[in-house]
Design goal:
InterPro entries: MobA_MobL. Belongs to the MobA/MobL family. By secondary structure, the protein is an alpha+beta fold. It contains seven helices and 14 strands. The strands form four sheets. It has a five-stranded antiparallel beta sheet with strand order 1-5-7-6-4, sandwiched between helices. Strands 9, 10, 11, 12 and 13 form a five-stranded antiparallel beta sheet that branches. Helix 1 packs antiparallel against helix 2. The model has no long low-confidence stretch (mean pLDDT about 95).
Amino acid sequence: MAIYHMQAKVVSRGSGRSAVAASAYMSCSRMYNDYDGIQHDYTRKQGLIYQEVMLPPMAPLEWNDREQLWNAVEETEKTKDSRLAREFVVALPVELDKDSNISLLQDFIKKNFVDMGMCADFAIHDTDGHNPHAHILLTVRPLNENGTWQYKTEKEYLCIKDGEEKGFTASEFKTAQKQGWEKQYRYKVGKKKEYLTSSVAQEKGYERIDKHPKSSRYGRQNPISEQWNSDEQLCIW
């Protein structure tokens, strides 16, 4: 009897993991991580039944090589706590044969991940013939139509107009500025430091002490990433 099991994880540098290592492990292969110079060798690992990379139409063809795919991910993520990939571990019906499970998994991955724009790297494991399961590794940064990475988050400037504060991205601010919205900067006001607009500060003769405008703490999340990261989407999967 088939038993449902699906586990979701995030592969993050902050937890000491790498996408290259995760891919090498599940595909039982040897892969070199350009980011940290570490080679991960899992060629002696047993139980690999099948492995494949599935890409959306806009992804570069060379990413069919999983080592190139995940090194591209590692390269574009710059911070020490970057989220590199999303990982699912899914139980497969023991009643189905190998080809049926492969077809079932390919269909699931295409409909739920690749058609949404993610690159998917997956492998089927079964060490004893009674526990077929799949490891699915997914990119977390959306792609542009030309195959380049989109942003995960974009800086959001907190601007002022008539006493109201509102957030704008750099592209949005071009229009907002024409409507009278102003960025805020830190100025020295007596012994205090306050955020003011340039027009107000110039009237009072305050000295600006920081070149960076006021912005939201985490920025504006890419709407595609926001959907992928939502609890609602996780429940759908």
